């Protein structure tokens, strides 16, 4: 068990004798430091996570058992996070690829009948981000959601969605389990516009509810993200664009380091409506 091993390493290395000669006997120069040992555990966990998510096609094809197995590993990695304020870490900045998600389409990389790659670009200075869904080959179909963020104050958001099964996400940040397969519908005179409209309709407005524990520093771990604009392009030509009003979600950063992030994202800030995203930093 990685977490138990990590705890044992801390226990052993914290019990060093104070006398210098005894210190040399108890901890020879070949002994790993706490940082080295914990880094090894984290990397082993990541390897195991990557091995488990590989056959799931970024979560698109994951069975319930596979989801459960990955969830156990993700929680272990979250338990090894060394940052007390991950949402304020400079590691958050940059471009991230979504390697795995439990979110429904289109947030998991599926747009109608098309499967693509989801990514996210965060600008900490401007407090903005762009979620990008790209369908290959050559990115012929793309969807970009631009948004801004602020530290979450702990106030639960009211879910005004009329779709009971809708869930929040990071790339798309809201989703409907209703298939968006409208391109093959011969009865639709403008299938691309219909696809864009359905994609847009999954973003529902919500309003903050009163409450929140003011004594807790929610901003240390969580952001309130607010959607600004959605644009869908085919072969570089815009076929749909929409601006949003009062549409927000809550992101909870449960793990972040230089190369890896785990985000629990939801419509309201309540844990029961969260979906998970496992991301890796994109190489420039």
Q: In a nutshell, what does this entry contain?
A:
The protein has 284 residues and is α+β, with helices and mostly antiparallel strands. It contains five helices and 13 strands. The model is unreliable at 9-31 and 162-186 (pLDDT under 50).
Structure write-up:
The chain is built from five helices and 13 strands. It is of the alpha+beta class. Helix 1 packs antiparallel against helix 3 (34-53) and helix 3 packs antiparallel against helix 4. The longest helix has 20 residues, at 34-53. The chain is globular, with a radius of gyration of 21 Å. 34% of the residues are buried.
Would you report the number of β strands? 13
Averaged pLDDT: 80
- In the predicted model, the low-confidence regions spanning at least 5 consecutive residues are 9-31, 162-186
List the total number of helices.
Answer: 5
Question: What attributes characterize this protein structure?
Answer:
eight-stranded antiparallel barrel; 284 residues; two-stranded antiparallel sheet
